[in-house]
Design a protein that fits this description.
The complex is a heterodimer.
Chain A: H1 7-23, H2 26-34, H3 41-51, H4 69-82, H5 88-102, H6 105-116, E1 122-125, E2 140-142, E3 145-154, E4 161-168, E5 171-178, E6 184-188, E7 198-207, E8 209-213, H7 216-251, E9 253-254, E10 257-258, H8 263-292, H9 296-322, H10 333-345, H11 350-364
Parallel strand pairs in A: 1-4
Antiparallel strand pairs in A: 2-3, 3-7, 4-5, 5-8, 6-7, 9-10
Chain B: H1 3-25, H2 32-41, H3 60-73, H4 84-94, H5 97-109, E1 114-117, E2 133-137, E3 140-148, E4 158-164, E5 175-181, E6 187-192, E7 201-212, E8 216-217, H6 223-236, H7 255-268, H8 274-277, H9 284-291, H10 297-325, H11 334-357, H12 373-380, H13 391-402
Classes of the chains: A alpha+beta, B alpha+beta.
Chain lengths: 365, 423
């Protein structure tokens, strides 16, 4: 298994980083948060056309670039650092991974190419964002007619295509329906983290197309893929918070000296660096496990749990070490704090993933 | 000839030469010392050392190959366990020719055991604040003072010693580095019993102990630089320069093995509890299953946190190593981060072991859990965040050297005589 990034991967990181540094500034992030759409269509188009991020991991046969989890992780890590607001996670990651892992071939051929170039915005509709075991209790299909409510769906208010996991008599299935179809209603919800737009999506006798059979294995695998990308986003955000917080302690003077010269702060920063380094290593390892097909589920849960706890710790410390200014709306730290919180709970809290790790380990030994 | 073929040929040449030399000379029926004399004379004891001093100037890879061939043949190598290597690597790097001639060979043969005389009761984290006194009287250095945490000092023939030779200049500048004979009336060694009942260390009291003038290393007042050399070996683990084999892989019979096993037993005795101070994460799952604690959701969470940290720390150190190899200029403080992580892991493991055992955690000794190992974990873990530099010192190193945070203001920059210190 690969243990470090290749030169090509590092160059790719540079390209993504440079783009986002320019186009995803704290100022533009605040604009996106305040807007209803939640993203800038021009920036998204450029990201897809110039950098090609939307199809990073989608096989060439389906119109993508055919890279793996490692490259996709590189994109997500940089997006997390720069707090990118856009449909990358909902469409390219969540919906595309569900299609890749679950859909039949003809549907992949039909749907993925437009997602891979960012032309179609898809989103994955799950009736639980807590754990795969809880999926399929609210959304029910009978004779291709879907009813029920998904309490939280990412970017549903801008999506063109809904990819849905719902229960039918024959078990869980994967379905699609176009936004705006009859029987579909979307309500944008108020959220803590305005960099991720979330809607409630209700279906009432909506006619859906069945495109695949969902078993626990393929749903788990989809879940793992999504979690590992999310973990990358989180370690990128944590790294950003660590760096900006260190910079702040060097510039801020109290008692006639930079506050970063006080041991009480230095030691906390050293501890944070340790945790960030460990979370990064575990997350990069998870991507490599996915690409190598070894121990993916355990590594994915470990990465999600570690990255989430570390991101939240970094966010708490970033505010505490700034003191009062850190708690203001004006200071940017709050933006990352809120993203950390939404990432912590999306696709399973750290406790859920830890429980999953122990169950797996218990069965092994 | 390409570089690859060249090194291939030379590796083959090394293998051919060493195998035929071992076939001719290795025999388990000699005494350990007799064998090692042959080993040193043959130039195979320390192949990573320079040609003038028993070596062949081999690089890491070549030394590893030599090591491997020794293992294959089951041949015993040069003496290497315990603090003696700190002495030999320091003398090799900083000693003069006379010192190298006198001291290196008996270290390799195992004839001389060494100890390290650095820490003092009054200067732990602040090593440069040491106050053991060395005075030049009638051409000899006279030493007075007390050292502490001296592993294997009770078996040592010699010690590497730092002492103060000038009290009127800043503290780092007044230190000198000596090689001291431990077998003299002015040196008294007492075992230091720890809270876990083991006595891995000693206290060493020096009262008018004598060091001949020729055993000052690196010149008067240069002791801090020499000590830094020793400490860097200690922190990163000495680079492999010696050949050797361990007895566990060589259950063969013969006088040389018997004596070698005895040497290892004595040298390794101080370290038997070291796995326990790291928390024995390896015992957690089986203990949880045995006791039924595995069905407790709270304990499961704590176990998972432990496994996350312990696996994550291994991955982080692999990532740092990969970065170092690729020549990245990004500073990765693998050592200090690894040390901090080890403390967190050990504490969490002790916490989990406690939850698993419940009231049984009161018991110790051979009839208690895991033949007393769980109890030993619980009372040994406090050492991990102190030994080899406290966690607080590691955090200073990380924050100042890696994160570039400003240094703490100092109050110990003037002449040593004027600095406030323990009395």
């Amino acid at each position: 298994m690969q243990t470090e990034f290749t030169e090509d991967q590092e160059q790719f990181r540079e390209v993504v980083a440079r783009f986002l540094q320019d186009k995803s500034t704290p100022l533009s992030v605040r604009e996106m948060m305040a807007s209803e759409a939640g993203y800038d269509k021009d920036v998204w188009r450029q990201l897809c056309e110039e950098v090609g991020v939307a199809g990073t991991h989608i096989p060439e046969a389906f119109g993508g670039f055919g890279f793996g989890s490692i490259e996709l992780g590189v994109v997500a890590e940089e997006m997390g650092k720069h707090l990118y607001c856009g449909p990358f996670f909902s469409s390219s990651v969540m919906a595309a991974y569900a299609l890749l892992n679950i859909a039949n071939d003809s549907s992949k051929v039909k749907l993925l190419p437009d997602i891979a170039v960012g032309k179609t915005l898809a989103t994955l509709v799950l009736d639980s964002l807590n754990s795969p075991e809880a999926v399929g209790r609210q959304l029910v299909v009978a004779n291709n007619s879907l009813s029920g409510t998904a309490a939280m769906v990412l970017d549903a208010h801008v999506a063109d295509l809904f990819v849905i996991v719902a229960r039918a008599e024959t078990g869980l299935g994967l379905y699609t329906i176009h936004a705006g179809a009859e029987g579909v209603s979307v309500d944008l919800l108020e959220t803590i983290d305005q960099t991720r737009k979330v809607s409630r999506v209700s279906f009432k006798n909506a006619m859906v197309e069945r495109i695949g059979h969902v078993n626990s294995e393929s749903l788990d695998r989809t879940w793992d893929h999504i979690c590992v990308v999310l973990a990358h986003e989180m370690i990128g955000g944590a790294q950003h918070l660590l760096e900006t917080t260190i910079d702040y302690t060097k510039l801020r003077y109290q008692f006639g000296r930079p506050i970063g010269s006080f041991q009480g702060l230095k030691h906390r920063c050293a501890d944070l660096l340790m945790e960030v380094e460990i979370a990064k290593a575990a997350t990069h390892h998870a991507a490599r496990c996915l690409d190598a097909g070894e121990g993916e589920a355990y590594a994915a849960s470990m990465a999600k749990a570690l990255a989430a706890d570390t991101y939240m710790k970094a966010a708490r410390e970033a505010i505490q070490l700034r003191g009062g200014i850190g708690f203001t709306w004006e200071e940017d730290t709050q933006l990352w704090f809120k993203r950390a919180k939404s990432s912590e709970v999306l696709m399973g809290t750290p406790a859920i993933h830890r429980e999953r790790m122990i169950s797996m380990m218990e069965q092994q030994s | 000839m390409s570089a690859d073929t060249k090194s291939l040929t030379s590796n083959e040449a090394i293998r051919a030469e060493l195998e035929s030399w071992l076939d001719e000379n290795w025999s388990p029926d000699r005494s350990l010392l007799a064998w090692r004399d042959i080993l040193v004379d043959g130039g195979w004891a320390a192949t990573g050392w320079p040609l003038e001093y028993y070596g062949r100037g081999f690089d890491r890879g070549q030394v590893a190959l030599v090591h491997e061939i020794f293992r294959e043949k089951g041949a015993v190598g040069a003496a290497s366990v315990g603090p003696r290597r700190l002495a030999s690597e320091t003398i090799l790097a900083m000693g003069n020719d006379d010192q190298k001639r006198r001291y290196l060979r008996p270290i390799l043969t195992g004839e001389h055991a060494w100890c390290q005389l650095f820490s003092e009761p009054g200067s732990g984290s602040d090593l440069a604040g040491l106050s053991t006194k060395a005075e030049l009287i009638d051409g000899k250095w006279v030493i007075n003072g007390q050292k502490v945490w001296n592993t294997s000092a009770h078996h040592a023939d010699f010690g590497i010693l730092v002492a103060r030779t000038n009290w009127d200049i800043p503290k780092h500048q007044g230190i000198s580095y000596f090689l001291i004979d431990m077998r003299q009336p002015g040196v008294e060694v007492r075992p230091l019993k720890q809270m876990n009942g083991h006595a891995s260390f000693n206290e060493v009291f020096m009262t008018d102990a004598i060091v001949p003038a020729e055993d000052l290393v690196g010149g008067e007042g240069n002791g801090w630089a020499v000590a830094t050399t020793t400490l860097s070996y200690e922190r990163r683990g000495a680079a492999p320069t010696l050949s050797g084999a361990s007895t566990s892989e060589n259950p063969q019979e013969g006088l040389v093995y018997d004596e070698y096993r005895e040497e290892l037993k004595i040298a390794n005795e101080p370290y038997t509890w070291y796995p326990q101070r790291q928390g024995r994460v390896d015992l957690v799952m089986s203990r949880a299953k045995e006791t039924g604690a595995i069905s407790d959701p709270v304990i499961r969470q704590e176990m998972a946190k432990l496994f996350c940290m312990s696996k994550g720390a291994v991955l982080a150190s692999q990532a740092a190593e990969a970065k170092r190899k690729s020549g990245s200029n990004e500073i990765v403080p693998a050592g200090s981060i690894g040390k901090l992580a080890a403390s967190v892991i050990a504490r969490q493991s002790a916490h989990v072991h406690t939850m698993i055992s419940g009231a049984d955690a009161m018991l110790s000794g051979p009839t208690s859990a895991e033949e007393g190992m769980v109890a030993e974990v619980l009372i040994s873990v406090p050492a991990i965040s102190i030994a080899g530099g406290t966690d607080e010192i590691q955090r200073n190193i990380i924050s100042e050297r890696v994160l570039g945070m400003p240094k703490e203001q100092r109050s110990d920059t003037g002449p040593f005589r004027d600095i406030k210190r323990n009395t």
